[in-house]
Amino acid sequence: MAAADFAGSKQAIAYALCKHLRLDPDAVSSTSIEESDIVSLFSHIVKSSEDEIMKWVEFSSSFVGKDGEHHLLLDNLNQDLSQKSVLLGNGFKPSAADIVVFATVQVFMNHLGEYELQKYPHVLRWMDYIQNVVDFGTTVRKINVAKSVFNPPSHPKKANKEDADPSSKKVVSGQKSVDKSDASVGSKKAAGETNAPENKANPTPAKNNKPSGDKKKSQEKSAGKANEGVTDKAPQKTAEKDSECNVSILNIQVGLIRKAWKHPSADSLLVEEIDLGDGNVRQVVSGLAKYFSPDDLVVSI
Q: What spans are recorded as compositionally biased (Basic and acidic residues) (predicted)?
């Protein structure tokens, strides 16, 4: 692409920078915009010579002036944006550098096909954010970004241990039946010995009708087996049910922070007014004061 293809970029830069700095866009004449290059136009409006900002202004100037090197410059930009949301600063507030670079890069990106656009995922993400929070007037045509729809996976239901291993239920059931039979047989034997008819020839003293110590131990052992394996599984099922959590019960919403200020009674808290886009503005208190200043959180359109 030739430099003439970027004719509307300077107009968009001048308008967006004036809006960003709360200046009157009409104060910059169209003649001065046409006769200035990107570096001189930026210095005329912003009046700043900070090294970090000027580095990106010169990047934009090179992007316009060096025909045939656009893909190489886009590769560098894509790599730089892989770890951050905006070009300068640690928050989400666009800077003057973001405005200048966007106004030049979007002209070239709008001429690329879908396959070529996918080579620069971080640039696309950044451009989609900038074009929705910065006012460039009517000279900039928004780039269409295909966004994937996120469908949260359903939470799998935990299988009951007995359902997972049906043989275990059969084993326990069989164990109960066998133990019950053993206990029944043991009790019948004991009852038979007690109710046996008296031997007239050799009468047995009454105290011998009671089961011996070994038989009593055997009966107690059989009774213990009958109760073995019977446990109260209700608490375990309740705990498993409580541990289940389906992500579909969450109501996740995305909004823009319109106002933010320090909490009057807590230095570590911030108060934000969040626009949800449906006419509702919510006021939220968060513990972000040690990470961001109120100005870093506010998104202005």
A: 159-168, 212-223, 230-243
**Is the Cα dihedral 215, 216, 221, 224 positive or negative?**
positive
Boundaries of every domain in the chain: 3-133, 256-297
Q: Calculate the dihedral angle through the C-alpha atoms of 188, 189, 194, 199, rounding to the nearest 10 degrees.
A: 130
Specify the DSSP class assigned to residue 89.
S
- Nearest-CA neighbor of 61 among 10, 17, 98? 10
- First CA to last CA across the chain, in angstroms? 30
Distance CA 116, CA 22 (A): 36
Structure token digits, residue 172:
């326990």
**Would you state the structure tokens that stand for residue 212, as one six-digit string?**
């011996």
Structure pTM?
A: 0.51
- Give kind and range of the element (H or E) at residue 283: strand 281-286
Rounded to the nearest angstrom, the gap between the alpha carbon of residue 104 and the centroid of all alpha carbons in its chain is: 33
CB 73 within 8 A of CB 59: yes
CATH of 3-133, one of 1.10.10.10, 3.90.1150.10, 3.40.800.20, 1.20.1050.10: 1.20.1050.10
Q: What are phi and psi of 284, to 5 degrees?
A: -125, 140
